[in-house]
Amino acid sequence: MTGGRLRIEARHLTKRFGDVTAVDDLGFTVEPGRITGFLGPNGAGKTTTMRMVIGHIAPTSGSVTIGGKSYREFADPSATVGAVFDAASFHPGHSARNHLRVYAAMGGHPDQRVDELLSLMDLTGAAHRRTHGFSTGMRQRLNLATALLGDPRVLLLDEPSNGLDPAGTAWLRSFLRYLAGEGRTVLVSSHVLGEVQQIADDVVVIRQGRLVAAAPLAELSGAAPAILVRSPDAEALAQVLVRRPSAGPIPRVERIGPEQLRVWGPDQAGLADLAAAHGIRVHGLTTEEPDLERLFLDLTGSTR
Amino acid sequence: MNRLIRAEFRRLLATRMWWGALLAGGLLGGGLIGMLTLVGPENFDPPMPGLHTEQGVRTVVGFLGYTAFVPAAVGTLAVTSEYRHRTINFTFLFAPRRWQVLVAKIVAHGAAGACYGLVLATTAAMAFFGAAAVKGVALGMPAAGIIELLARTGLAMVAYTVLGIGVGALIRNQVAALAVVIGYLYAGETLLMMIPGVRHLYPWLPGGAAAALTDFTAISDALSQQLSTDPVHLLSPVAGLLVLLAYTALFGVAAVLSPMRRDVV
User: Fold this and answer.
1) Is A91 in a helix, a strand, or coil?
2) Are the Cβ atoms of A81 and B93 closer than 8 angstroms?
3) A197 vs B254: CA distance, rounded Å
4) What is this structure's pTM?
5) For B202-256, what is each residue's pLDDT tens digit?
6) In angstroms, what CA-CA distances link A299 with A212, A265, B241?
7) Do A106 and B4 touch (CB under 8 A)?
8) What is the C-alpha to C-alpha distance for residues B221 and B233, in angstroms, rounded to an integer?
9) Interface contacts (A, B; CB < 8 Å)
10) Which of A81, A102, A148 to mutate to test the interface with B (most CBs of B within 10 A)?
């Protein structure tokens, strides 16, 4: 990587397609040296936002900059940003190698870089095959190879795990971690939360084009640990809990079955003591791991 | 800019289409002209003056203009295939100053159009002179003049390539753009020639201007004869060249400007 670290900054970013507002007054930053997960349900405006970063789509209002400049201002764009969008962005009649050679020439990158990336992406054996017959996974890897031709300082990936097998996904995770470790800025969009949960340092969550949350992942998902309670007297326990048994905030209780509750607020010991004090039977207490999926569904209102 | 032109040459040479286009140039140039020469314009329907006259020579050579759909289609595909196969994603990522991409396409494909024109003119010359020799006809025009006609036709192919790029950039949808380009070149202008009033525009249309380059009036004369109308008078070769250059510039500018503000979604 040549050149300094670059922060992406979106300010009041808005895009309207006719009557449809795809992105609405969106503001966030993407820090270099970290992997940022860009989350939202399908149609939330993730792709539109990412395309505005690289000037594929012109904002209706607001701005998005990379290191304080708009993408068009960079003298060496492909060494600045690499981006992966659709699952197939190449001519079906071109071989993988010829496809990469076209863009190596366009970016002024040496042909040797083509061979390096074919090897890195495990495509050397398929280098002379026309992309027409490529599997989805091979297409994704060829897309990634193209994005990496210029050894870019910023990497944008739109739903990169689509079509990758579990081994490929694991490889991609460690690869993106490595790139971020070198100081690059990595933005990965996904609607698959488990995926982002495993790789992201920060998350930006959007819904209907608007910002819902932007924070380090640990902060966001650590905010609300829950305890799963199994009890034949679940309803009685729920009543006791919401009567504010002790000082502090009122626990939040969710009834998830005749004998099951999910409780936010007290810890396991406090909850067990409270149940004992009221003669309520408890058959099991489990602290739930911070679950971004639940948080995500809460934040984006998808449970409605 | 040089990088982009180099990339466009690589893109062009990476598909089989380009070699197919050159092969088509050879087959159309050699095959079509060879056949027309062997048959002889005096045997056309309606009959035309024979090869021993200047007009007969112009008639046969002028038919080469009908192969312009090949470079026009190549030019159209240069732009539309980027949208169809989504390579435009990478192209505008690597070259965010979009006008430069279109200029590079015009340069690279213009050169390709010149290659097509060269193959077309060379094979046509061989077929024409060969077939005339076989028939033992004394041609109604000096050889140098015939070669000049062929060279003009070859050059017109560059203009048609750029015209194709312009239409491709404006329409973007591959099927629609190809239908417009090929439909217009094949049928559109000929149909226009049949409409009273509008037909007088023909000399100023791209096909009419290209026909003026070789003073090719066979089709318009035949139509006039069948429709019993006055023949359409073509522009002089120089004026035809200027009109064709103007179209080339117009479509070239349209190609360069058209992607500037459009969103790539």
Assistant:
1) coil
2) yes
3) 47
4) 0.84
5) 888 888 888 888 777 777 777 777 777 777 788 888 898 899 899 999 988 988 8
6) 7, 19, 66
7) yes
8) 9
9) 95
10) A102
